[in-house]
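Q: I'm writing a short explainer about N-glycosyltransferase for a general audience and would like to include a description of its predicted shape. Could you first generate the structure from this sequence?
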Amino acid sequence: MKLIVQIPCFNEADTLAATLADLPNAIPGIDTIETLIVDDGSSDGTVEVARRLGVTHIVRHRRNRGLAKTFSTALQASLRLGADVIVNTDGDNQYYGGDIPALVAPILDGRADLVVGDRQTSSIDEFSPLKRLLQRLGSHAVRHFSGLDIPDAVSGFRAISREAALKINIVSNFSYTIEMLLQAGDKRIATTSVPVRTNPKTRDSRLFRSIPHFISRSLATLFRIYAMYKPLRVFLAAGLAITAIGSAPMLRFLVYALNGDSEGHIQSLVIGSALLTVGVLVLALGVTADLIRNNRILLEQSLLALREMDLRLAAMEAKATPRAQQERLQAALTEWPAADKRNANQSNERQDRMAGDDQPAAAAARTVSAQAKSA
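A: Of course. Here's the predicted structure. Afterward I'll give you a sentence or two in plain language.
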């Protein structure tokens, strides 16, 4: 059982050492623990620090791609490296690495495939009352849309089984936390949460500039991903709402018409007709989006099969490479005496040919010498 702790990094040279020092050296049920750093275009020497600290695997982005893309890169790299369990933590040492055994325990016990660390934000001194309130409201919204009872939806301290990681496809450019939970709920991935501890704050977040910016980006991500996975529900609600609004002026015009006073109220008929038309179009878009969703499901199933095939081939190559090297070495050792004998024979033959070529020249030299003596 191999565990890979992946750490997305962007200019984390100052905190990486403390983050790595927190990681456990051994966990019951885990045979191998490795570390993976994905450097997202850092300019402060993060990679050099990682090498000096003995990080097992290092992957680099030539330019900054953002947290979501970096997490996706780390996830795919961990899978190709043969991870059975993947733990994601931050490079700023926000999460206490000593809680990793508790984080992976539900996966090792077979109770879950995705475990989210609950920071228990109500007890964190750095969180203001407003931030705590927003965190509770955001987690409640994610819980409502995903169907998962996760109290800390935006926590990045997570453990993922190999089976769950193969099914996750991050498409957001902002953050992976909300999208992963929505996908887990839609794909029926067994998900749970465990309480974890945090370390003192080392720096401000680089993911967002301010709380309003974070809220707007998170709401946009929540809406986009939910609409992608539940399009019929979203468009049905929007279409029915627009149709209901359009029905009001239509009913108003109908009431006046029944009372014989329809003149001067034609605007209600126009507005109502337009809104009803838009409502029907939105409902039609919902049906079309639902058909596209079914096609996306088929594509994701194909992608899952391709990933599994690719990982099996990579595992076979990893196993075959040492064996092939050993076979080539054995063949070389077996061939060595015969090759050495052939080389010796070829050398003797060359010497014989050279000697044969020298005989006429030697005879000619002796004849010239004899003639000189006679003279």
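A: For your explainer, you could say: Residues 232-322 form one domain.
Q: Perfect, that's easy to follow.
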